[in-house]
Amino acid sequence: MKKALFLTSNICILIILILGINTINAFNPFNLASLPSTAIKAEDSQEIISPNEKINANYWIKENEKAKLMLKCANPNQEEITRKWFVEAKFASDAPFFIFDAEEYGIGSYRVIGQCYLNGLTNKTQMYNVEVIGENDFSVIALPDTQYYSEYYPNIFTSQTQWIKNYKDILNIKFVSHEGDIVEVGSSTSNWENANTSMSILDNILPYAITTGNHDYDNLPNRTTTQWDFYLGKEKFQDNLWWGGSYEGDNINTYQFFAHGGIEFLMLHLEFCPRNQVLNWANNLVEENPNKIVIITTHVYLDAFGSRTHVGTEYGCSDYGFYENLEETNPQNGNEGREQWNKLIKQHKNIYLVLCGHISEGTGTAYLKTPGINNNEVHQMLANYQEVEENGGNGYLRILRFSPQTNKVFINTYSPYQNHFKIQNNQKFNIEFYPNEYLPIQKSKKITSTIYKFLKIMFSF
Description:
Elements: E1 2-6, E2 13-19, E3 25-26, E4 57-62, E5 68-74, E6 81-87, E7 90-93, E8 97-101, H1 102-105, E9 108-118, E10 121-133, E11 138-143, H2 147-151, H3 154-166, E12 173-178, H4 189-199, E13 208-210, H5 226-232, E14 243-246, E15 254-260, E16 263-270, H6 276-287, E17 293-298, H7 337-343, E18 351-356, E19 365-371, E20 377-383, E21 397-403, E22 408-415, E23 420-422, E24 429-432, H8 445-459
Parallel strand pairs: 4-10, 11-12, 12-13, 16-17, 17-18, 18-20
Antiparallel strand pairs: 1-2, 2-5, 3-4, 5-8, 6-7, 6-9, 9-10, 11-21, 14-15, 15-16, 19-20, 21-22, 22-23, 22-24
């Protein structure tokens, strides 16, 4: 048994007891040197979390290791205290102890709230984010626009990639996809040096790819990428086994592969407002890989209201002088989200997910689910917090945890810089994941054999 004493106010103390093997991992444990000497240290891990966190503790629990999280309200003055425990806003218990049993609740993403009452008044409310991870779960990380980090807050950018590296094994991270606008000024050497320093933390650690945003070009109308090519050119990636290739032999329109548990993925990264010829190339690439589930990352696609951008959309392609009807030789020939959907995305059964950034209004996120022409549901997500949070986004990223056992993908919005989860319904949700539905139907050997035997009897051959 492992114990950790959680100090709160003078009125109540919340005690966390962790039962089981080393299965619960807290983000950013509080430095022991800054804690009172009464804090109890576990033998081989420290589970004390700062009581001033917006979410007081974040726990990852492996479902198959049967760990339990025990919570208790206590009062140092021995005054009468009542308790209420809630899981996902549903009343769970009013017992002195509340045990979150990973095996009982099952694979998922849970918000646990503990309320301590003294004399009928709420004196302390603690919130926990508890992730119960399945044995076969794996994750993809989406990095929204980092442009302000590269110019003003490189430490925030580094906090994201360092956290990804640190939690690679815990979350079974398989791929990292950057949604574009890596830098603020595409011609700035200092911007690119900062960005390269942060992204390079993932080198030889994880497969990752980047897509161009409008800020990443030296000259946007001409689509020139001198600094991009120098710092993040194809030479940095092409020798990796997961590298697939690119449209023009550079690192602008690229594709990558990864697999887990027999499920194969094609990651497709498309330029800012992709040109017609790029969409034609992408169509051929998807057709050549019918047995792979496709995830597309591109910079401009959804607006803040969850609609695909079109001519006239504020901050859409047309605002920058890019239109689909221009000659292919014109670098400003480019497609809005609506055209990307019609010309590419809706055409293929195995396209499952589209990730994008760019527009940052409202809550910084949007979601759209629509069927393609093959009746496959395509999930489309916008995430960009640069204008809706301080410090250019406060380090929020997206964790997409794929759970084949539950046929779900759990979406979380988390900031390693703040150690904070966003818990609103549009920031923390799940989507359906039925891998076989996105793949071509395979001929059944059993059926084929039965037909053969029938024909053999009928025609005596």
